Amino acid sequence: MKNVEQYFVPWIKGLKPYISEYCELAWQDMSLQRMMHNETPLEPSKKVLEAVNKYAKLGNRYSDSAKVIRQEIADINGLESHENVLIGNGSCEVVDMIFRCLLLPEDEVIQHTPCFGIYRLRCNVLGGKLVSIPMIYKDQLEYDPDGIINAITDRTKVIVIANPNNPTGNFMDEKDFVRIAKTGVPFIIDEAYVEFAGLERSMVKLIKKYKNVMILRTLSKAYGLAGFRFGYVLGDKDVIGQISASRLPWNVTTITLGAALAALEDTEALQERRDFVNSEVKFIEESLKDIPGLTIFHSHGNYVLFDGAKAGKKGKDVAAFALERGLLFNAPAPMYDSEGFFRITPGTKEANRKAVEIVKEFFSK
Ligand SMILES: Cc1ncc(COP(=O)(O)O)c(C=O)c1O
Q1: Which of 159, 185, 190, 351 has the most other CB atoms within 10 Å of its CB?
Q2: Cα(first)–Cα(last) distance of the chain, in Å?
Q3: pLDDT 10s digits, 196-233
Q4: What share of the chain has pLDDT > 70, as a percent?
Q5: What is the arithmetic mean of pLDDT over 330-342?
Q6: CATH superfamily to which 18-43+268-364 belongs
Q7: 180: pLDDT confidence band, cut at 50, 70 and 90?
Q8: What is the pLDDT of residues 95-150, one digit of tens each?
């Protein structure tokens, strides 16, 4: 008899579940200020909460194929029909569905680093090979479209780029998206944060011309519904139809569908969240811009990345200093020979003012 470990596919062996220590900590101690995961500090709007209540009462029922909300999303994005839209349990699940449809073990995924970690995690689960193309660090971290195009091989099955990028907060030029789209390789443009700058910045128009382009979105960020888990992808209807075949039936709960529809219709609540976050990002950037040796990466998302290396500071020390004072910051792993990186997601007004004081105090030591 073989032992059970021998039945697992080789590429899953040794992989660890994703656990965010800071998330664990934040739920254990609710007094900690969550400024590490690009959430929105405002609680769901009244209309969303009403919808939750309404749909909770229908919790004994299976949902339908969500044509109503998919059509709403198509309308918001100037697309023809619900067939251009596939929904998921957060946009992470949508990434997973797309990867499953495209990757065989050893096939390649091109990502642009630093970036959101889920592309790597889901690629690993499928035995794919991750090809990471670093952004170019001059004064700021810049996109490297040539690097991405040059990395394409016969085994490249998908390219994924966030726009604006997390954690750098910047946008890539439209002409570079077009150049990558023209390669024909399936191309996910992750627009998790695009609503903060406005949908005018979206690359959704490329879908009509390039069948390989998919636009990934989420309600976790500007809509402020991270805990509800609702994401979607926009694309050509044949492509979406094919990927939809991998969707688990009822992958999005009835309650989340109700909450998400209410949130999409509640344009005032979206505006309120966007205005609040944008002004707090500006406040944080402005308040810290005069610290000698602190590089600030100007952000179009709900987070700001910093590099304290030139001031001789380490990101993990900033995060530890903040944690002692009740604030959770994110400290990415060292990169570009610098241990100085840290990222702050705006929290409440009060938390943001405290964060600014803490960073100033730390850098004055
Ligand atoms: C670029 C990017 N895409 C997607 C997500 C996650 O979205 P969701 O909560 O919809 O899975 C994040 C979360 O931080 C992100 O930074």
Answers
A1: 190
A2: 63
A3: 999 999 999 999 999 999 999 999 999 999 999 999 99
A4: 100
A5: 97
A6: Aspartate Aminotransferase, domain 1 (3.90.1150.10)
A7: very high
A8: 999 999 999 999 999 999 999 999 999 999 999 999 999 999 999 999 999 999 99
Q: What is the mean pLDDT of the chain?
A: 97
Cis peptide before 186 (omega within 30 of 0): no
What spacing in Å lies between the alpha carbon of 218 and ligand 1's midpoint? 7
- What's residue 365's pLDDT? 87
DSSP secondary structure string, 126-152? TT-EEEEEEPEESSSEE--HHHHHHT-
Amino acid 248 reads: L
- CATH class of residue range 46-265: alpha beta
Is residue 166 within 6 Å of ligand 1 at its C-beta? yes
Q: Domains of the chain: which residue ranges?
A: 18-43+268-364, 46-265
Q: Is 162 in the pocket of ligand 1 (CB under 6 A)?
A: yes
pLDDT at 312 over 90: yes
Report CA(60)–ligand 1 centroid distance (Å). 29
Q: Is the CB of 121 under 6 A from ligand 1?
A: no
Beta-ladder partners of 327: 33
Q: Choose the residue to mutate in 91, 93, 193, 304 for probing ligand 1, maximizing ligand atoms within 8 Å of C-beta.
A: 91
Q: Please answer whether residues 34 and 328 qualify as being in contact, where contact means their C-beta atoms are separated by less than 8 angstroms.
A: yes
45 CB within 6 A, ligand 1 = no
pLDDT over threshold 90, residue 315: yes
Q: Is the CB of 190 under 6 A from ligand 1?
A: yes
Ligand 1 atom closest to 162 (CA): 1
Q: Is 85 in the pocket of ligand 1 (CB under 6 A)?
A: no
